[in-house]
Amino acid sequence: LKPRTQAQLAWDCGSGEWTLLNASPDLRFQIEATQELWPTEDAAGKRHSPIQDVILTGAEVDQALGLLLLREFHRFRVHATRSIRRILTEDNSLFGVLARFPGQVTWNDIRIGEPFCAGSVRLEALSLASSFPGFVAQQRQDELAADEAAIGLLVTAPTGGTLAFLPGIGAVSDEMLDRLSACDAILFDGTFWSNEEPKQIPGITRTASQMGHMPVSGQGGSLDRLAALHRPRKIYIHINNTNPILDEASDAHRAVRDAGWEVAWDGMEINL
Amino acid sequence: LKPRTQAQLAWDCGSGEWTLLNASPDLRFQIEATQELWPTEDAAGKRHSPIQDVILTGAEVDQALGLLLLREFHRFRVHATRSIRRILTEDNSLFGVLARFPGQVTWNDIRIGEPFCAGSVRLEALSLASSFPGFVAQQRQDELAADEAAIGLLVTAPTGGTLAFLPGIGAVSDEMLDRLSACDAILFDGTFWSNEEPKQIPGITRTASQMGHMPVSGQGGSLDRLAALHRPRKIYIHINNTNPILDEASDAHRAVRDAGWEVAWDGMEINL
After folding, report:
1. Which of these, A102, A211, B80, B90, could form a disulfide with B56 (CB 3.0-4.6 Å)?
2. How far is CA B95 from its chain centroid?
3. pTM score
């Protein structure tokens, strides 16, 4: 088995300015393992981080906690829905470490269906009809916008290449399938192989679909639902350590490879 | 230079139950690098973590954030002053991930000067007359107890061996010096070599002592202040990457070694 840290994506557009997709708790180590993301020093000895933009697709610990590890960096922008921003900054005083000086971090509110830019990349947020993290009290959830709980992203590179990023998704509508069919690459929720699998995890009594994850296998699984898509590279990401596709010797791994899917690994690069 | 992750201490008393001193953001990787801290499985396949107790000496990101990385573990206890607990759990909804099921995490309020136990180790908290983290609003600080902002610890092992843990300390009173002189080992704030050093760090305009850290060198520095202590092993911890003592070829490193101090490193073990 290849060791895999948590799902973390980053891109640049040749400009040396990088965008991170989510900020996992493993971010410090992922940055250390990726020379392109190291801070540089200019002639005056001033440090510059190549990380200019961070896009958050949800407010889960695994998606957002890494932001607090960027607090020693210079100015950067965080793109998130208004609801995700409010959960993090209004309900968590720790995020005050990102406001050590005025303008250290600026927040850009993502609106569902409205294109926005990060660096020279164009993006559009898709609502995943997911739910807020379990730590958000019901009363607080009622004050927030349900369609902003978790988002997927359609990413259009300056080259025109397109990528869909769907790290947690419970169902694929016909409309979404249509949009995915036109992409060059799809990074798709590979959390669980089967619907019953999460019950192996101590403390979890729900199925994959009850947790908002389409399983890979079975009826209504992603292998089945996305089988007709031939244009895009299809890549599983966000794979839980209980998922047998991580084991390259497994039947499950062979099944996804035979169906034309790839399994993401630490350090994987995708060119658009 | 040896790479050093953030200051993190753990001990067991031969019982296989471990206590962590603070929970740094690097905790996941520190656990992975330390086989004794890996979860085990019993005959029924149930996972048990050897980590039973976590003691927090403050509410800074570097001291507390790692708690959120223990959320997939079984029950454990967190020992912290009431003020530190309130900052983390009342002002940060993310800490709700530690209450996935009733009794997952129990909090024990540490009172200054009152002994308490973690595993089979006896502890006493020393108030460091420090300040609350910068992210805690002044109005909130007024509701909390100033002497609970940050603590040091006197640790007495079942063998009778004693250790002082002072990862951030602005000054050593005569009374504290007296207590330290009776210890077997002292782990002491080695953040900065000189008082002016923090100004090298972008965004910081204060001196080491203004930040609540006794520098190592100079008048009033720890080399000077603790020079008369001959009984304890003296070990610098919590060393910032700007501190020249990290470089074994430096004059600063030689100076602390010549004065009988050790410089902590990842994986260092201390027997009491």
Report:
1. B80
2. 20
3. 0.85
